[in-house]
Amino acid sequence: MSRSKSWNAYRAAALVLLVFCVLHSYGALLSTPHFGAASDAVVESMRTVNFSAQGFTDTWYGFYLGFGWFSSILFAISGLQLWVIGGRDLATRRTDRTLVWLLAIANAIGIGLCARYFFPAALIFSIIATLAIFYALLHDSRMCSKAAAQEPAGE
User: What is the pTM assigned to this prediction?
Assistant: First the structure.
């Protein structure tokens, strides 16, 4: 079995994003981490301080949770989309390349955000997912070039 048949970069990226989703959801949202007394005081303030924006009132903790769940859902949907694309044949995957490029660019931007604002684990997941997506795009491009070179002239 060739390497391209045994390893699917789309599905590898999908698994990384799905694991990232689960760990992000559990580690940041279902069990808010404790980093000491000062951190716990900030979390408690976030839970009690309200703000109003555009006619909507919430706590800062609710805002934190809302954006956290929004991020987790995006990880999951991106992972599921890559899983579906990874199960398609090369010709069909080529029609999805714009979407895959957008996912690759979004994840590449995420690397910068993780490096600036988040923990090393988030950075590592972002790097691995991004590299797998770019590898998948490169691999498909090479496979299409190879297939085009093997076609008889005039067809």
Answer: 0.86
- The 10s digit of each residue's pLDDT in 24-58 is 999 999 998 889 999 999 999 999 999 999 999 99
Scanning 25-59, the segments in alpha helix (DSSP H) are 37-48
Question: Which residue, chain included where needed, has tokens 């690397």?
Answer: 111
Amino acid at 52: S
Tokens for 47?
């839970």
Place of tokens 């390893």: 7
Q: Residue 78: CB partners within 8 Å, gap ≥ 6?
A: 17, 103, 106, 107
The amino acid at residue 155 is E
Cα–Cα distance measured from residue 54 to residue 114, given in angstroms and rounded to the nearest whole number: 29
Give every residue of the chain whose pLDDT is below 70, as ranges: 1-6, 153-155
| Residue 59, beta-bridge partner list | 50
CA 11 to chain centroid, in Å, comes to: 12
